[in-house]
């Protein structure tokens, strides 16, 4: 499994009547030609959410459960994630240990 990390920053324009600032890291976990994308925000340490497969669609079913299991294990051990979630059609679902 290959893991890449890319920092992101999404900040409102000065003077915006509804200011916002989102900062964090997007992680991509790749194996056997598939990529699973996850995101972590700086203001919620320990939380990581798996968002989509390489085609950008939300996760409806897990086509590569082995990749997801390995990515969750990596997130918990290497990244220190304690609250790991999976985005589904019903919203974010916590992934147990």
What features would you highlight for this structure?
single chain; 97 residues; mainly beta; 6-stranded mixed beta sheet; 1 helix; 6 strands; elongated
**Largest sheet report:** 6 strands, mixed
Q: Could you tell me the radius of gyration in angstroms?
A: 14 Å
What would you call the structural class? mainly beta
What is the tally of beta strands? 6
Kindly give the count of domains. 1
Strand proportion: over 45%
* Unreliable residue stretches: none
The helix/strand series, from N terminus to C terminus, equals EEEEHEE
Task: Explain what this protein looks like in three dimensions.
With 97 residues, the protein is mainly beta. The chain has one domain. The protein has a six-stranded mixed β-sheet with strand order 1-2-3-4-5-6, with helices on one face. The two termini are 20 Å apart. Helices cover 13% and strands 47% of the residues. β2 (21-31) and β3 (34-41) form a beta hairpin.
Gist of the model:
The protein is mainly β and about 100 residues long. It is built from 1 helix and 6 strands.
Please render the helix and strand layout as text.
Layout: E1 2-11, E2 21-31, E3 34-41, E4 47-53, H1 65-77, E5 83-88, E6 91-94
Parallel strand pairs: 4-5
Antiparallel strand pairs: 1-2, 2-3, 3-4, 5-6
């Amino acid at each position: 499994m290959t893991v890449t990390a890319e920092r992101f920053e999404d900040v409102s324009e000065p003077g915006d009547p509804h200011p916002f600032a989102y900062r964090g890291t997007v992680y991509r976990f790749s194996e056997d030609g598939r990529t699973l994308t996850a995101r972590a925000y700086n203001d919620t340490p320990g939380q990581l959410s798996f968002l989509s497969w390489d085609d950008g669609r939300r996760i409806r079913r897990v086509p590569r459960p082995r990749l997801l299991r390995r990515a969750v294990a990596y997130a918990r051990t290497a990244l220190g994630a304690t609250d790991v979630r999976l985005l589904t059609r019903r919203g974010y679902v916590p992934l147990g240990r």
